[in-house]
Amino acid sequence: MAALNYVVNIASKLIRINSENPPGREFETASFIADELAKIGMKTTIDRFEESRANVIGVYGEEYQHPSIMLNTHLDTVPAGDREKWSFPPFSGEIRGGRIYGRGAVDAKGILAAFLGALRELADKGWPIKGRIILAAVADEEIEGKGTKKLIASGLRTDYAIVGEPTSLNVCTAHKGRLVIEVDFHGRSTHASTPSKGVNAIYYASRFIERIQTVKLGEKHVLLGYPTYTVTMIRGGIKDNVIPDKCTITLDVRMPPSMKLDKTIRSLEKIVRRDVPRDNYHIRVVNYIPSAETPRRNFLVKVAQQSILEILGMRRNVKGFKATCDMSFIVNQARIPTIILGPGRIEQAHTIDESIEICELDRASKIYSRILERILSG
Ligand SMILES: [Zn+2]
């Protein structure tokens, strides 16, 4: 089977295996990948950590061999949503007009297929490399990164890593972090006919919401721009004739690498305190995924840029990735120099009628293969 047909066929088959998260059901997809990796001569392991959840790892080479590189992407997808709205069923892997359609086409089953295409190309050439390659297709990237965290906790280390996410074939060397905080505002309830006798917690919250929309906290990052602050949820009030004594807002903060957690919380607290007394609010961190960055002078970045130039015939600038991804754990917990690189546009991810261009998959597969050969040429 020609190389491109192989990639298209794998991508389409992967889309046909539902791995929506939630609920999180990657085991079947992991088994399919394990079979494919075994066919091209990689040692494969399925790490099943819950009834329906698993990572799959394929290895070529021995543990002591260097350099080593990990290709990492995820098996799970976000849910398909309202299936009636799709032009083709979301788990059909329909091929039409030079594109593959379905949930996960771009995020990240197409990318996983392109990884496999690159590995198969090396296998067909008799593995013309020195060193070690690890393919890790992990669970739970879309929620909290359980899969990659487990992988790192198991002691897996490599000299380099490529995280497969849709970057339109640009090398991304940094991504923003994500901080989710909740702020409880406390007031005093009373009858709504005498509001001055109470303290309205929703009014406290609304002052903060006004201020946060114009806030300028944190510096601009050369690749990622400014941090963003967005109120995404609000809960308050118990009845239409009672002054609310509690209101809780949820704030989503996207932080470039220069911003530190403690300092950000302290700055946000200062904004709250402009309008709200010390005893009338409480701030807590609900979720925090740190940002990550790899220096642009790193060998992997250079090799990736060079490989893209050769395959696409044009030079591409290094970019930043605005969302969070598993690079955070690979860099912050394992200190592995990492880039994010993949076919397809991030705007396609998580949408109805998600799709990816077949020729983009082909280019991706060739770029990955070129990077592997160059990094592992000894
Ligand atoms: Zn993704």
What do these coordinates show?
The chain has 378 residues and is an alpha/beta fold. It has 2 domains: 3-175 and 291-375, Aminopeptidase; 177-289, Alpha-Beta Plaits, CATH 3.30.70.360. Helix content is 31%, strand content 24%. The chain contains 9 helices and 16 strands. The strands form 4 sheets. A 6-stranded mixed β-sheet has the order 1-2-6-3-7-15, sandwiched between helices. A 4-stranded antiparallel β-sheet has the order 10-11-9-12. A hairpin with a 2-residue loop joins strand 1 and strand 2. Helix 3 (105-124) packs across helix 9 (358-375). It is elongated, with a radius of gyration of 23 Å. The two termini are 30 Å apart. Bound molecules: zinc ion.
Which features does this protein show?
4-stranded antiparallel β-sheet; 2 domains; 378 residues; single chain; alpha/beta; elongated; binds zinc ion; 31% helix; 6-stranded mixed β-sheet; Aminopeptidase; Alpha-Beta Plaits; 16 strands
Low-confidence stretches: none
Number of strands: 16
End-to-end CA span:
30 Å
Principal-axis shape equals: elongated
Number of domains: 2
Q: Helical region count? A: 9
Q: What is the strand arrangement across the widest sheet?
A: 1-2-6-3-7-15
* Helix share, percent: 25-40%
CA radius of gyration: 23 Å
Give the class from helix and strand content and strand pairing.
alpha/beta
Given this structure, which CATH class of the largest domain is correct?
A: Alpha Beta
> Which ligands, by name, code or SMILES, are bound?
zinc ion
| Major sheet attributes | 6 strands, mixed
Q: Quote the CATH topology of the largest domain.
A: Aminopeptidase
Question: What's the overall average pLDDT, rounded?
Answer: 96
What is the fourth-level CATH superfamily of the largest domain? Zn peptidases
Q: What's the architecture of the largest domain, going by CATH?
A: 3-Layer(aba) Sandwich
